Amino acid sequence: EFDLDTAQHLLCEQFGTKDLVGFGVDKATAALVAAGCLMQYVKDTQRIALPHIRAITLEHNEHAVILDAATRKNLELTVNLSGGFENTLAQVLDKTATAMGSRLLKRRIHTPIRSKPELNARLNAISAIIDVQLCGELHESLKQIGDIERVIARLALWTARPRDLTRLRSALQALAPLHQLLTDASDPRISQIVAQSPELPELQQLLEQAVIENPPVLIRDGGVIAPGYNSELDEWRSLSQGATDILEQLEQRERERTGISTLKIGYNRVHGFFIEVSRANAHLVPADYIRRQTLKNNERYIIPELKEHEDKVLGSQSKALALEKQLYEQLFEFIAPHIEQLQMMAAALADLDVLNNLAERAIALNYAKPELCDSDDISIKQGRHPVVEQVMKDPFIANPVELNAQRKMLIITGPNMGGKSTYMRQTALIVLMAHIGSFVPADSAKIG
C-alpha cells in the first residue's frame, strides 16, 4: 500500500527538505518506495524522533566492484567456509583500534570501489602515515576515542547511559593529542580528517563538570551528576548523606537514656529506620517506643524523632534523584544540536583508524603500494596469498601474474593440492585489496 508520494513526503519530512533532488535520488522511484517503507518501519518500532538520519544516498553499480555471494564465500573475506572468523582476509587485515574502525574496514572489504581518485586518496594517506612512522602512537590515541559512533547514535535516540557520556568525554579529550600527532603527516585526506573532527571545548567542559569520573551503569541508581555542578542538588545530597552524624548522636543518647548498651539504630528498605533492642532488654524500653517489627531474638521500635528524621532523609533522597534525572536529560538537550557534527567526527575518526590500521599492516606484512591504472591490465610481481602466507610454517612461494589485452586468460595445470586455487584466489584478493585502498602482498602491482 506504500506509494511513491507517501514515501517522498515521509523522506522530505525526515530530512527537512522540499524535495529529494539535492540527494540525486528523485528519479529512483522503486528505491524511494523501499526507503520510505524502511523509514516508516523504523519510526513505528522506535517510536522516537530520529535526528541522526539526515541523508539518503544512491549507490550505482558502475561505481563498485560487484561481488556475488559465491565469490564472497569462497574468498573467505570476513567469514571462512566453516562459518568462523579464523583464517579470513578480515582476520589478517583487522588490527583496528576501535570497533567503529573494524566495522568500516569490513564494509570496505565487502564493497570495493572503482573510483581511482578515492582509492588514491586512501593509498596516499597510508603512505603519509608510514613516512612519519605514526602507526603505534595513532593506534594508542585512537583507542582512547573508542566506539563513539554507537555512543552518538544512542545519544541521538536519547537511550544513552551515563557511561556513554564518559566515553564521549574521553573521546573529546583525546582529540587535541591526536591532532598534534597528525601535524607531521602532510596529506590532503588526513587534513580533511582533522577538519572534520574539530575539538568541541564547550561540550567537553560541560561533560567534565557535569558527570563524575566513573558513574554507575544506570541513571536510576543516582550518583551520576558531579558535585559542584548544581547547588540545589548538592544541598539535597548533603541532607541525605549527612544523616549519619545525626543517627550516631541519637543512638548514643538513647543508649544513655535506656541503659541498654547494645541498642542500635538500623535501616532497611521495607521498614525504614528502627531502633533494635534484644529480647533480653525489652523490659527496659521506654513507654514512648512504638514497636515496628518483632524478630526471633530482637524487637525493633520507632520513636517520633527517628520517624521525623526518616521522612526528611527519604524525602531528600527522592528529591535529589528526581533533580539528578532532570539534569541528566538537560545534558541530552545540550548535546542534541551537536549530533550532526559528532556523527561527522565519528566517521572521520573511523576512516583514520582504518587508514592507520592498513599502514601498520603494510609495514608488518611487507605489503607494497599498488598502482591503479586506466587500462584493463593486471601486472603483479611476486604476489602472495595474504591469508595462506600467515598460516604456513614454511615461507610462501611468491608468484607473478600478467593479464592484458594480449594475454586475457591463463591455463593453470598441476597436481591436486598443488596451489592452483590458491594462485587464483590470491590474484582476486590482491585486486580486491587494491580496490579498498589497501597496500597489497606483492613486490609491486599494477591494477587496471
TrEMBL record:
InterPro entries: DNA_mismatch_repair_MutS_C, DNA_mismatch_repair_MutS_clamp, DNA_mismatch_repair_MutS_core, DNA_mismatch_repair_MutS_sf, DNA_mmatch_repair_MutS_con_dom, MutS, MutS_con_dom_sf, P-loop_NTPase. SUPFAM superfamilies: DNA repair protein MutS, domain II, DNA repair protein MutS, domain III, P-loop containing nucleoside triphosphate hydrolases. Residues 84-391 form the DNA mismatch repair protein MutS core domain. One of its GO terms (molecular function) is ATP binding. Keywords: ATP-binding, DNA damage, DNA repair, DNA-binding, Nucleotide-binding. One of its GO terms (cellular component) is cytosol. One of its GO terms (biological process) is mismatch repair. Belongs to the DNA mismatch repair MutS family. PANTHER family: DNA MISMATCH REPAIR PROTEIN MSH1, MITOCHONDRIAL, DNA MISMATCH REPAIR PROTEIN MUTS FAMILY MEMBER. This is DNA mismatch repair protein MutS core domain-containing protein. It comes from marine sediment metagenome. The lineage of its organism: unclassified sequences, metagenomes, ecological metagenomes.
